[in-house]
Design brief:
It is a single chain. This protein is mainly α. It has helices spanning 3-22, 27-34, 55-72, 75-78, 100-116, 120-126, 132-151. It has two domains: 1-92, no CATH class; 95-153, no CATH class. Helix content is 61%, strand content 0%.
Length: 153
């Protein structure tokens, strides 16, 4: 196993652990966060039906802070080589425009997240502890990814 693969595995493991500890692998908690109409009922820091749960906003804010620090210390800004620490080059998207496919993908992503309480990262992290629902979600997600590549890309 190469150093790059070990670093990738460790980063993925850390990401999955963060998702589990933060509650993002619990659909009820995610749906409580997405239930902004629950603000009429009040705020609950537990996954209480009908209430809005703001705790995942703290998770996202914490992730944003870590990302800002990481971007500030990336090699492109700190080393003359401009290369990442564990690869030959940064792999950035070539396109930066917003088109209909991107908007439609975002809408479908949001609908799926709102209906199921899972998005791809937490769903994959939940495979080891989840039940039939997470297996069904991951299977449907793979079919959707295959269909998008076949007909839309």
């Amino acid at each position: 196993m190469t150093t790059k693969n070990m670093i990738s595995f460790a980063a993925g493991l850390l990401f999955a652990l963060g998702l589990v500890l933060s509650g993002m692998t619990q659909p009820a908690k995610v749906l409580g966060f997405l239930n902004v109409m629950g603000l009429q009922q009040g705020i609950s820091w537990q996954a209480a039906p009908g209430y809005w749960d703001p705790s995942l906003a703290l998770v996202m804010g914490g992730a944003l802070m870590v990302t800002l620090i990481a971007f500030a210390i990336t090699p492109a800004r700190t080393h003359a080589s401009g290369k990442p620490w564990f690869d030959n080059a940064f792999h950035l998207p070539k396109r930066n425009d917003v088109d209909g496919k991107l908007v439609m993908g975002g809408v479908l992503f949001g609908i799926g997240w709102g209906l199921a309480g899972y998005c791809p990262g937490p769903a994959l992290a939940s495979l080891f502890v989840g039940g039939v629902d997470v297996l069904a979600f991951c299977a449907a997600m793979l079919v959707g990814m295959w269909a998008a590549k076949k007909w839309l890309v």
